[in-house]
Amino acid sequence: MKKKRIPHNRPSWDEYFLEVARLVAKRSTCLRRSVGAVLVKDKRILATGYNGAPKGLGHCLDIGCLRDKLKIPSGERHELCRALHAEQNALIQASLYGISVKDSFLYATNQPCVICAKMLINAGIKEIVIADGYPDKMAMEFLKAAKIKVRKI
User: Fold this and answer.
1) Is residue 91 within 8 Å of residue 101, measured between CB atoms?
2) 45 within 8 A of 56, measured Cβ to Cβ
3) Residues annotated as part of the active site
4) Each residue's pLDDT tens digit, 7-23
5) 41, 53, 52: which is closest to 123 by C-alpha?
6) Are 88 and 49 in contact (CB under 8 A)?
7) What is the DSSP code string of 35-104?
8) pLDDT tens digit string along 84-114?
């Protein structure tokens, strides 16, 4: 007897990895924006990261947000945030375990800021796929100058 095939809407690789980034973002401890990032090479996940306070330090969820208190607009004065960005945490996670991210893809729920863009450039990221933007034109200028393709899907 022939097995009946069940209809199936299989996601593309881009959709799949962005959905993983959305899931990772749910671990965020930021009160302003939940961001998730996934580093991928040869269709394999190398590392993930979400935005939150450094290991062992209090989370904004628990102690409040200094940037909100000071009414700092999104995309400005990153140094006043206690959290690391999702992209930074993904790069750090890979480095802790000796995983090279050279020529990998970054999937992220949001466009990287300029600080993350500079780190991604130096880490050798090949391409960035994002689900949403971020108010940081300089980041996009840097990524374009470094010839890193950024796609929004």
Assistant:
1) yes
2) no
3) 87
4) 689 999 999 999 999 99
5) 41
6) yes
7) -EEEEEETTEEEEEEE-BPPTTSPPHHHH--HHHHTTPPTTS-GGG-SSBPHHHHHHHHHHHTT---TT-
8) 999 999 999 999 999 999 999 999 999 999 9
